[in-house]
Amino acid sequence: MNKKPITIEIITSELHKAYDIINKHFFESKLPVIAITIQSDARRKLTMGWCTTKEVWGDKEGKIKMYEINLTPEFLDLNFYETMDTLMHEMVHLFNKINNVQDVSRNGTYHNKHFKNESIKRGFCYKEDKPDKKYGWSFSRLSEETKKKLDNLGINKDIFSIARRTNDYYVNIEMGNDPEQETEQKKKGNSYKWVCPCCNTIVRSTKVEVNIICGDCNEEFQLEDY
Asked: Domains in the chain, start-ordered, CATH in brackets?
């Protein structure tokens, strides 16, 4: 008997299944129903996935609204745990979004301590004890305990065995976010504007990669979007 071929439809279905399982076992079923897509974005060739910042799916009447998590097709067969890592990474962003927690700055590239703290709660760990200068706490990894748990939750690893073959994608990997947030950062005049998320104090710098802490609120200043 011929084995049934793996299709994009089958992969998408398994990703929805994985989302529901992970939502139940790692997020206490607190995440909403979403749309999961598989598509490339020419603006972010190294991005493995992203979560939209708005409910971009819905009906004409506005009664149904859904966020979207996308996985880049070029990386789908890279490794089962990498795929789950990407999915769960974006689920952390979604959890923070629906709870009004801003976990990124610098046009969505810098992952702050809110992302770090929630990631650790949801089964991630960090190899480094300090944030990356450009991407912050973006580089979380699934803990060994989380991997073992995923092994026993009924997600079919064999489904993730095909990918879109584009050689340009097989280079060093960066974790990604919503591409609508990741347009190139532009200077406004000769300085960058930073805002404390608590007291709204404003400071300016001549460099985009700086770490500024508010002395009154003990919060990291965030780069204002342009």
From this structure: 8-184 (3.30.2010.10), 185-226 (no CATH)
